[in-house]
Amino acid sequence: MTDRIAESELIINERGSVYHLDVHPDELATDIITVGDPDRVQQVSQHFDRIEYKRQHREFVTHTGYIGSKRLSVVSTGIGTDNIDIVLNELDALVNIDFDTRTVKPQLKQLNIVRVGTSGSLQHHIPVDSFLVSTYGLGIDNLLNFYQNTPTAAELAILAAFINQTQLGGNVAAPYISPCGPAMLPYFSEGFHQGITVTCPGFYGPQGRVLRLPLSNPGFINSLTHFNFDGNIISNFEMETAGLYGLGKLLGHQVLSLNAIMANRVTGQFSNNGKKTMDKLIAKTLHILTSI
């Protein structure tokens, strides 16, 4: 018999919705777009032909609707892998846990989850306002270290090269790495750069920005730009992808992270057309998802 999940572990609201997202199982599609900014949910759902549900709790906004016959949900995560931990676990709970019995369902459902977010390029050839798909998410944020996770030999090799080439030492938590959802990647090849995305636990010091505080490892960002292991380069960094890929892999979902490049840390440029670039990425993403 499957163990019952206690009320303290899975919190269900009075209307039968999951705690943080405030979404009921019937209100979630199996094809999901995640965005960091709650205001970006409407930027996506304005393309829907009709919207079935709108839910909001704290920074978590969810719209579920249709484009033609394709049912989609858009969910805001907020910033950082701490929020990704909440969102991925609750999305999985909505489809794979019976809320009445509080037990895991015997037949598990796989979600298709596509992050549409912003990022900073670490390579000269990946310019501002371009698009990038993350082949791997490499986390220096510690989230996946709280879960049982067995890296493959290929993943361990990349991690060993990363630790050696960046000279991380004791400056950060043990890094982890997870691949994108392989079934999703072929659909997002044309018009996208590719590379390893490093996920940082902050925007300033962890991404090498200096305002008033000196950094413990001033050469870290430069070492990311020059990293190379068997042709694998670090293309960009942000604050969510590794958590999405790691939890997605462990939970059995297909996850892909798409990035609109807002800054190039090599050239020092920042986008003057950020909203226009994001609009283009949203339209491109929806076109691809509705054709699958």
TrEMBL record:
Q: What is its EC number?
A: 2.4.2.3
CC annotations in GO: cytosol
State what protein this is by name.
Uridine phosphorylase
Q: Which GO terms describe its biological process?
A: purine nucleoside catabolic process
Q: Name one Pfam family in it.
A: PNP_UDP_1
Q: Which CDD domains match?
A: UP_TbUP-like
Chain ranges of the Nucleoside phosphorylase domain? 32-276
Q: Which catalysed reactions does the entry list for this protein? A: uridine + phosphate = alpha-D-ribose 1-phosphate + uracil
Enzymatic class: transferase
Record GO terms (molecular function)? purine-nucleoside phosphorylase activity; uridine phosphorylase activity
Q: Which InterPro entries match?
A: Nucleoside_phosphorylase_d (IPR000845), Nucleoside_phosphorylase_sf (IPR035994)
